Amino acid sequence: MLRDIRMSNALVLQNRQDVALRPVSDAVYAALYEGEGAHFMVESVSLADIESTYFYDTPILEEASAMFEAVTSTRARLSGTMRAFVKALNQGLSGTGITAGNDTAGDSDDGGQAIGGANIGRVRKVQGLAVMPAVIPLSDGQTVTLVFHSPSGNASTIAATDSLVAFQFLLNKKDVTHTVSPSNGRDISLKQVTTALSNLIERNTAKFQHAQAKQKALKAELSNIQEEGDKLEGQQASLVEQGDQLKAGTTDLAQQLQQLTYQADQQEELNEELQAELAAAQEKAAKPQPDPAPAPAGQDNSKLYWYGLRARAAGPGSLPAEPKPEAIVTPDEAADIRIVLDKGFDPSDYRHGAVAYTTLLSADDVAQYELVDFQVRQTATSITALLNDLIPLMKSYPGNENEFYLDYLANDAPHADDLPQSMKDAGGYAKVRTNYGYKTTLQMIDLFKKVKAENPPEPAPAPAPQPGTGKRKLVARAVEDSKGEGGDRDGRIMMSIEGPEDFIEWATKDLEKEYDNLQTAGEPKNEGEVSAIFGVDRADKALFMARWKQLKTAWVNGEDYPPMPGDTPADKDTTPVSGAQKLGVLIGIAADLVNAWADHQNYSDDDLAAMASHLSTYKTPANVDRVHNALMFGDAFLKLDESGSTPPEPAPAL
Fold this sequence. Notes:
Layout: E1 6-14, H1 26-31, H2 47-54, E2 66-69, E3 72-74, H3 78-92, E4 106-107, E5 113-115, E6 118-120, E7 124-126, E8 129-137, E9 143-149, E10 163-171, E11 174-175, H4 177-180, E12 187-189, H5 190-248, H6 250-284, E13 305-309, E14 327-329, H7 331-334, H8 338-343, E15 354-357, H9 363-368, E16 371-373, H10 380-388, H11 391-396, H12 401-409, H13 421-425, H14 429-436, H15 439-454, E17 473-480, E18 489-496, H16 500-510, H17 527-533, H18 541-557, H19 579-587, H20 591-601, H21 605-617, H22 621-632
Helix pairs in contact: 3-5, 10-15, 17-18, 19-20, 19-21
């Protein structure tokens, strides 16, 4: 609270011309940041702060013992006085980018009145004096506070005609009265006070802004922490509610446990009876190779279908009502069943034993009662056995693994009827792969490559040469030249699969040229001679020469000449090529296998088309191997190396 206010120590502030204005020195400014109240310099103040703390609990520096009779007015004329003070303060702040005062009038947000550019607070009695604060807001967020008292009126109240004297100045929450006052003498000018205040405001704005930004960040962090705390409280409440629900269900679970215990006792008695029957049936089974799978007495020749009890023991409610089981065995006995031994099932698949039926159960019953269908379920052992049965077909197959897949294993494969009986009994390769997963295909490919490596095919004998015959013939195709519609047509060179005899006959008839077999005799020495023989126009000579160079290489090597635009037959298949087909062609893998890989990776056909386009642009052996291996091992499409290749150049226009 304000203390030690002495009227005898008053200083008089006069609104007069002052030439020798003294700025605030660095030492004086630095002293404001010393001591316990240094942080007050970067904390702006409001009327509520002044009225609730400053008048009561805030300690005042020793300099406050002197009362500086600064700005003098009456309460009725306070608006004009404050407007003049704010104007003088703004003159001192000119060029700093900071302005003082507000442009509002009437009641302020904090309960005071806004007049003359300042917010005027309520009158309070301090040490027997009636005092009243006036807060001037600054545009950078700082505040300047003037504290008025009335030496002429009632000590308890301030009337409209009472004189008001500003005797104390605050910058933000810091008392700077001793800073803006002269070091000696009592008479100071209004210009000196506003100059000192504006100097302090300008020097303090950077630190003030930094402190405000830091405070804003801390408030934001606190808000986030509070929000996270509210979220955790909500989660805690939800967990408590779940705990209450679980606790409420304890009684029901206890009743269910009692019922299941009774059913287990009944099942144990049934198992003992069945075990006795099975033991008798085993003694009657034929030997020397008895089937270890127990069979009901009197039905040794019947076919039994076994199912593993993985989730629960046999008993009421754990098995279908119909059909009735023919046999129920313990886990130890289930381990000796022939199909369990042959396929190598894991003990977890029959942890509660196994049950046998004379007819197959439906897939719905198997799923509903969580049984393991030993007939359908495949294991690593059974997959290996099924694939090993394919080895004879693999040895004799002339193509690669992709062609083998398409011919024998794909959906609607043309040679599926030639598969071994074991694969047919398992439902075909597609069903085996569905039950065991995409690893089936990877294992098949590895086995195929191993078989081919151990059994390389014998090289086919080279065909005997046939002198006097050619591999291709030249064909002239009528096309319009630059003469326009209805003009003469030139002969453009193409290739077909007929022999040289057909070519000679055609050349003699259509081109009126006598010419021998190009492969055996009379081959022209240069392209110009060839163009003359075929009657090509001079305008098409460059194109003709380029085609002839390609033709001579293709002629010798027996390659097909690339078709020219417009050569597509009318009956050619125009079905759009899928993304799987495009990618499969690039990496040498059948489209069905690519689709299987795409299903595993959740790729669409558009994704496959985009992969094919990217690989085609950056097609290098390393990138092809990278994509091929990713598909073989079921990995995702890998990023391609774009440094070792360049995108293909566009084909030249014809």
